[in-house]
Each structure stands twice: as structure tokens, then as C-alpha cells.
Amino acid sequence: MSVTADDVRRIARLARLAEPEDRIDTLVGELNGILKWIEQLDEVDVEGVQAMTTPVAFPLPMRKDEITDGGIRDKVLANAPKSDEGFFVVPKSVE
Amino acid sequence: MSDLLKLSLDEVSAKLKGKEVSATELAQEAFAACQAAQPALNAFTAFDEEKTMAMAMAADARLARGEGGLLEGVPLAIKDLFAVEGVDTSASSNILKGFKPTYESTVTSKLWDAGAVFVAKTSMDEFAMGSSNETSNTGPVVNPWKAKDSNESLTPGGSSGGSAAAVAADLCFGATGTDTGGSIRQPASFTGTVGVKGTYGRTSRWGVVAFASSLDHPGPFAKTVKDSALLLAAMSGHDPKDSTSLPNDVPDFAAAVGQSVKGLKIGVPKEYRVDGMPAEIDDVWQKGIDWLKAAGCEIVDISLPHTKYALPAYYIVAPAEASSNLARYDGMRYGNRVEGKDLVDTYEKTRAAGFGHEVQRRIMIGTYVLSAGYYDAYYLRAQKVRTRILQDFHDAFDKVDAILTPAAPSAAFGLGTKSDDPIAMYLNDVFTVTANLAGVPAMSVPAGLDKSGLPLGLQVITRALDEETMFKVGAAIEDSAGFGFKAEKWW
């Protein structure tokens, strides 16, 4: 499978990356090079094979449903690009 | 600089416990050596002298009371992927520039609990995506090693290039790295250091900036196999904050170092003899085989038939997981924001300005392979191929106790010589990536020099949870190789 310039623009949008127009052709070339190389995987017989989830099987640990952390509002906000009165400040998202 | 920094971690630890040297003195020396080397090697991204000296003084106080931990007073460097409280942690990316964690990663917490002293953060490929340390936002790290009669600047490998360079140049006694496709073992091979990743889940990923969660393995760089075993043991252990952290007890890895390897079966996989591999890599591999044979091991030819599919599978799984993990960098809660005309525009501008080209390329690949209609063809198929690769290892470990391979397909190469061709760069991980996909322990041990005087490493791979055999075999190689070479100081 290969991608076109329009595919790259669509992928960039899905990935929330503002790709400038003059980068699109380069990306088409690079992405197609990588996708073509990846196509080798079609040679592998994966009929009836389970997708790998973990190398060492152990039951997922359960813990009590209780609060173990919190009360650290200032720490959580410490690296915010913008905050005000204990809140993150973000661009308006509802018209 | 005195010769103290040339000692191994184990040796300096004995001197600290014997009060022949104080932690404060040692920290001052290591800190000064790192600073002095920085203009030439560019290995570091952040220092915090106050923190370093405070930790060293606390170590001295504990040593004076006879309470010192396993690593008491030993200066370590930390890859910029690990959150260190109050110290810039940016994953060598502009999007996180200036980020100061208000928490500590589990792995570094464990190292500090064992008494280690923070000396510096080390540079890396941006978000650990690279094999040459050239995608760091602070520029490439320079390998302390140079080829004979050449002044060309070489890569220390990547992504953990700064950590590898810092240990190779004797600026500290060990360093942390992370290995997602070979990011500890390939730089270790390029710098004549020991690099290890344990079984997936041995070391917690909590507080480590995520790249590809099912492949990320924190681990150490060290000067000797024993040091690497001490460091991996200190870094390992169950962490309730990481659901993939193994509940198993951590054995005394260092106790395996020096044990006899007599009677062990060592597998030599034919698929690791790749086209165009320099003869010197083959030679060093043959030497390793001969050494282990002489030490009483039985050499067994084995096959890992799906080896050639490991890298392409990796380049689906890793970008897919990365595209999900890196979705969090949207300029809202942390990191840098570029204001746009609306919310989506702000996201897009923030991410385009904050991520470098390699990171953007991988996010795009990951987004594509996970997008509607392609998930089964790419991601699901790659995860099935991964099961095949794990099965290859299971079949091999029915017959052998450990596998011996070269660690990297070449010695360190010149900076800038591979940066235009993504696939040529990806091929650096051809020997290491299988162990990430399968989650099995693997290490690189310095084994010799090529004809231009550059270090080459051998890789030892063992069964999941059997790091002890890996350290045993690694130490036998170290013993026979009598490596002992150091980069000649020019920095």
C-alpha cells in the first residue's frame, strides 16, 4: 500500500500535526519507503496465530478501589503553559 | 582529575565504605569532569550542583553511621527520559523544554534509595527515537572514541548516547538508559561499555517518558559486567504504579558474575549472519564462540527463522504505540504551547513546533497504521509476527541456555553519515530488536576492537527471568576478552 499527498495531509490532521505544504512531498517519499519495507511482513504465515500481548504471562494485578494519591493541585499545575486560580487555562473549544 | 573516576563502581564502592574517599569528594570530581567534558562531548542536558552536593553529603552522613546502601555515594548519570524531581526532564525534545517534574521515576527513586548520587541528565535521541543521538534538541553527542589516525567525530550510538558516552569517558560510575529496540545495547557496543536490559517488566516504566510501552525497558550502562548486575538489581523490582511491572523477586544478579559457565549450551543463530556485515563483526563473533567453548560451553547451531521480520514488525508496533503515547503533548497541561486561531489549530501548531522531524515521521506512520481500515493489515499482523518471534526464542531455549550474537552490525559511524536515510538508520537495531519484541533479557559486552581501533560488542540473550545466566555468560566473555581498552582522552 502506498500513500498520496492527500493521504499525508489527512494523516497529519489525524495526528494533529501542522505539516507545512513544502514538507508534504518529502513525507510522501519517506512514508512510502517505510511502508514498502514493512510489506515484507505479508510473507509471514500468521494463520491461527494469537497477537502477542506480553512476554511473561502473569495475572493482571488487582488492587483495592481506594484513593492512594491526591491533594497535589499545585504540583499538577506546576508545568502548565497557562494556569489561573488553580485551573488549567485552555483555548475556547465550544462556540 | 585524579584516577578515582577510572575505577569501576564496585571498586569505588569499596573505597567509599572503607572511608578512603568521601562521597562529597567523589561527587565534586565527577561533577567537574562532566562539566569539563561537556563542550567537547555534549553528553549532558542538565546539571543541578546543589542537588548533587546535598545527596553526596547525605551519603557521607549515612556512611559515617555505617548505614550505607548498595550504591552509597556513587555518582550516576541519568538519561533525560527519567523524571528526576526538580531537574529539567525534556526527553531531549523542544516540546518538553523546561519541564521540571514534581515527582521522581521509580527507577531513579530506587537508585537514590540505594545511596547513589545524581550527577547529570544525559542527552538522547528525541523521545528515544534514533540510533545515533543526532535527533536530540541539544545536538548530537560525540563519542569519546575516535578511529585511529582520524579526527572525525563519531556517534556514540542511540538513543541513550549521552549515558554511553558519559560512562565510556569515565565521567561517572554508571548511567541509566532505556532500550526500546536496542537503545542501550547498540550505544554500549559503540562505546566499549556494558549495556543491559532485563526481562520486560523487571524495571518499572513509571516516571519514564513513554515511547512504545510494550517495548520500553529501562536498564543500566556500566564499566564492567559486575557493575551492570549491581545496577540492574538496584533498578529492578515490583512497582504497583506500573501494571506491567513483574511481581517476581529480584535475584542477586551480581552473585552470578564469576560463576562457571561449564556445561552451558550456547546457541549461535544462523540468521544473524546478515548480508554486507563487515568481516570484523564476524571475527569478533567467532572469537566469542571460541572463548565460550574454551570455558567449557557447548556451542549449538540454532535457527531463529523470523529474525528478518523483527525490524519491520518493530516499525509498526513502536510508531503505533508512540503515536498514542505522544498524543498527550498537546500544549495544555505541560510542555510548550503555540497559540493558534482555535483549539485544533493550537494543537497542530504546538505539536509541529515542538516535535522534530523523526518524531513527526514516526507519529505519522503510527497514526496511519492505526487508522480505520488499516489496523488489521498492519498493527494486528505485526503483533502476530511478534508472537512468531517469541516462539522462535521459546524453541531455541528448549535446546540452549543462552544465545550469542554480535550486538550491532558495525562499529561507531561518523556523525551525519546516515541521517538522510531512515531505513539505513533503522538497520542499526537489526540484532537487538528481537529481544525487545520478545521481552527477553539481553546485554552487550565489549569484546574487542576493529582494525581502526573502535570497540565492538557481543550480545548475550537468555530466557525471560533468567538474567543470571546472561550475567554469567557476559562475565565469561568479559574475562576472556580482557577488553580493558579506553578511549584516549582528547576532550
From TrEMBL, chain A:
EC number of this enzyme: 6.3.5.-
GO molecular function: ATP binding; glutaminyl-tRNA synthase (glutamine-hydrolyzing) activity
Signal sequence coordinates: none
Enzyme class (EC, first level): ligase
Catalysed reactions, semicolon-separated: L-aspartyl-tRNA(Asn) + L-glutamine + ATP + H2O = L-asparaginyl-tRNA(Asn) + L-glutamate + ADP + phosphate + 2 H(+); L-glutamyl-tRNA(Gln) + L-glutamine + ATP + H2O = L-glutaminyl-tRNA(Gln) + L-glutamate + ADP + phosphate + H(+)
Any single GO BP term: regulation of translational fidelity
Transmembrane regions listed in the UniProt entry: none
Origin superkingdom: Bacteria
Alphabetical UniProt keywords: ATP-binding, Ligase, Nucleotide-binding, Protein biosynthesis
Protein role: Allows the formation of correctly charged Asn-tRNA(Asn) or Gln-tRNA(Gln) through the transamidation of misacylated Asp-tRNA(Asn) or Glu-tRNA(Gln) in organisms which lack either or both of asparaginyl-tRNA or glutaminyl-tRNA synthetases. The reaction takes place in the presence of glutamine and ATP through an activated phospho-Asp-tRNA(Asn) or phospho-Glu-tRNA(Gln).
Subunit comment: Heterotrimer of A, B and C subunits.
UniProt record similarity statement: Belongs to the GatC family.
Protein name: Aspartyl/glutamyl-tRNA(Asn/Gln) amidotransferase subunit C
Species annotation: Maricaulis virginensis
